[in-house]
Amino acid sequence: MNHSYNLDDLKYLMKRLREPEFGCPWDIKQDFNTIIPYTIEECYEVIDAIENQQWQHLSVELGDLLFQIIFYSEMADEQCLFNLDQVVDQLVKKLITRHPHVFPDQQLHDRCLIKPSDQQIAASWETIKQQEREQKGQLDQRQAKVLDDIPRALPALSRAQKMQKRAANVGFDWADLTPVIAKIEEELAELKEALQGGNIDEIRDEMGDVLFSQVNLARHLNVNAEQALRATNEKFTRRFNFVEEQVVKSEQDWSQYSLDSLEQFWLDAKKAGL
User: Fold this and answer.
1) Nearest-5° Cα angle at 166, 206 to 100
2) Distance from C-alpha of 206 to C-alpha of 169, rounded to nearest angstrom
3) 143 secondary structure, DSSP code
4) Which of 103, 115, 163, 190 has the fewest CB atoms within 10 Å distance of its CB?
5) Interacting residues of 151 by C-beta distance below 8 A, sequence separation 6+
């Protein structure tokens, strides 16, 4: 099949899948909530393809993620909420508004001859975002708060870092690393105290404070905490796989190895650059 399909074909396909009489039974019975897990999964599969530099696979995963947007838009269209064209229109308008240094006078095809600094761009971006939050708050008939539009469904590390950045934008932040590191030490001391008390609720609470303060250090170091931990997870996987390979090669059971012996395999993995 040499024919190349386009976005219009995808929109038509989606309508066919949701067609009450002749569509797909599974697609027909879905609603906004039931496909949320698939959307989350597709997002992570895109990230996984990028991190593993599987570029051909990335093309497929991006298509799967795009399909989620088409799916939501079709269901919204069926309920007369909005359609895909409106999604695209709102997105283009928002991006034009957020990039006045690229689109002067909010005109898509005009070019700006003056190039601002990175600091000016960042300041302008935050000002525009705050205006958007205030407008959203007015639509919701309530006062928009600084942290309101940070999704609660974000991974915890990502949400913590985003919350801290948002607070920093309004001046709630330390100026250097010294108090940031001191805060980690303070939280660790409180965790040790909670451990002595043995109250699981207090231990969980203090453990959360330790993690939150570590995310804050990552932010001050311009390190993405979520990406850093994901990279460490992969590093742990490589090294533990090496340890497992040594155990398997020995034809002995895990229980026959002391922790010191397994630790030596781990050190060998590090020396091997894993």
Assistant:
1) 165
2) 26
3) P
4) 115
5) 159
